Amino acid sequence: MKGLARREFQLVLLRRMADYQPGLVEDAVRALNASRTEMREVNARWQRILRSRTFPRGRRRYEAVLGPADAGERRVGDVVCEVASWPPFPLWPGLRFEIMMAPDGSVAQEWLVRPEDAPVPELRTVDDLVPWTCVVGDLAARWDGLAHQDGDAPSRWHVGFSTPDGSSYVAHFVWGLLQEVVSV
Q: Angle, nearest 10°, between helix axes 22-31 and 36-51?
């Protein structure tokens, strides 16, 4: 799609992350040779695409921006969902952007994920949970008894967990990427 491709899509992802990590986002925007104004403009364009009645929906929407996807299926309970993912972005080289579609073709989940064959970061303690170093699946690989919760926006996800010493925390994710961990 003219004017909106992989570079610009990274700006869309960064726009929501700025609420949690403005310093990291500022550095990332500079690394993309962009400005905060461009980030806002690209995000506004993406929002218009999401609301458009004529722009393709589901996987085709993302392929118009990100190019061809690697596709497969994943079972969630009794439902088989189509999954599509794209190669890593320069800002997050070890991660892929993934969408999971419901049986009707609508996008049910969209986030950054670690490829199955990639090593999970060593997460021994809560101090190892550094912003932008892990994704939701990494937490699931490390801690049992996670309590997943929808966030306050479609791109946000919260995960409650406890450490062996009984301390409780909530990890905040945007587009599947860790933003902060707070004690509760």
A: 90
